[in-house]
User: Which sequence fits this backbone?
DNA sequence: CATTTTTAAACCAAATATATACCAATATAT
DNA sequence: ATATATTGGTATATATTTGGTTTAAAAATG
């Protein structure tokens, strides 16, 4: 052990050290921090102090504290993505998705295979089991839209969708979005996902595109609703 | 670092370790992981714990679990890919433009200003003076579509259009494309550009989008015509 | 001095991990 | 083709771990 014994550490000191571990990359996305009781010992502080530090980091959006489970990293270490992606606003993002995803539905009807749709079906089922868990739902939702893009077999489109997914995950908006994801909204999304999938399976490009537009319109509404709060 | 020696491993810890093995490349695409029962022993955890970890990784899209068979790596290690752009085929590009540009027209009607349209008009005029010069025409054409994207005031969309423009300029088939650009085709393009611009000025989003689709269809035809030669 | 922060200990509820047994899908050898 | 072994899927009862909370005393701070 390398001598932390030097000085007494306050809550904000500990927060700073953990924050640094995260942006340095020693702690990566989805990693679980050591339990509060262990951190307390390694930093030579009381559990209550560590707890304050972690709450600070949670407010800053670096970690997510899950009672009974642990504290997890929710922050991507500085990758140098283009400014256009980092600074994209939620509304810009929605307009871009409005451009892409309905047409992606049409292409999916043309190029998608049974296996693609089966995968999307699996994700639908998973999302339907996440009605009470906005975070997991949101993650599965991202995968659903990625799987949809996959089914077009268009590497360029898939790449663009991936870039867009980065916008969604990095921002504070994600947290705000989770707040707007009540059970009713999630159920509505799930119904729309199913309808889209059905339209793809029955090879109805325009119907799939139309439902996708409705889906995005729903999402846009819940977004504006959230920003007015 | 050292001597974490005997820390108990939770599901997310195991998930993190496997995730790192995958992105590091120790586990490659289509590799099969060890059976759950073996992993459980090597990580010193119960099978249920390993199982939870693997399910997490499946949610994240790193692995695919096939009952009775095994668990397989499905993650394309670190795309972040210029590859998707460099290797994009002309048809992939056309499909992507089909997705983006009609909707860009709609957004242009919403957010475009007179100055934007004036700039596009200038480019139209320039293109009309290039009927005999496919290379110059092609350059101006790129600028026209970029100016159209600019008029949406959507930084994300503009960035995507720029990426796509790189595809167009880099590749060999750009040369091929120039071969198909006879005077008749260029005149047709020019007429369509004018029509699009007019629809934007008169604030008719759907008409602008429709003409854009026709424009892209024309381009796609001349593309397939070229590749059959 | 008054105030805030840290410490320390105990307890709670929820989430997770363990251990075991059995089922279902798949692969392999006969 | 059939039988057998291997693999993931599921269920369950129990034990452990984890964050959440409260309280009171000690230490640091201004």
Assistant:
């Amino acid at each position: 052990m390398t001598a932390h014994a030097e000085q007494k550490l306050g809550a904000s000191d500990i927060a700073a050290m953990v924050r640094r571990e995260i942006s340095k990359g020693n702690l990566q996305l989805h990693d679980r921090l050591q339990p509060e009781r262990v951190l307390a010992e390694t930093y030579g502080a009381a559990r209550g102090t560590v707890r304050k530090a972690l709450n600070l980091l949670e407010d800053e959006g670096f970690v997510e504290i899950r009672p009974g489970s642990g504290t997890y990293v929710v922050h991507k270490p500085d990758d140098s993505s283009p400014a256009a992606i980092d600074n994209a606003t939620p509304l810009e993002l929605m307009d871009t998705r409005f451009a892409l995803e309905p047409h992606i539905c049409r292409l999916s009807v043309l190029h998608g295979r049974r296996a693609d749709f089966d995968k999307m079906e699996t994700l639908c089922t998973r999302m339907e089991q996440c009605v009470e868990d906005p975070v997991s739902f949101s993650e599965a939702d991202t995968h659903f839209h990625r799987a949809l893009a996959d089914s077009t077999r268009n590497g360029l489109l898939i790449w663009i969708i991936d870039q867009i997914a980065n916008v969604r995950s990095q921002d504070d908006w994600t947290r705000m979005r989770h707040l707007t994801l009540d059970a009713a909204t999630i159920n509505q999304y799930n119904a729309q996902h199913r309808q889209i999938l059905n339209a793809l399976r029955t090879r109805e490009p325009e119907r799939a595109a139309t439902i996708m537009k409705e889906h995005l319109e729903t999402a846009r509404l819940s977004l504006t609703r959230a920003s007015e709060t």
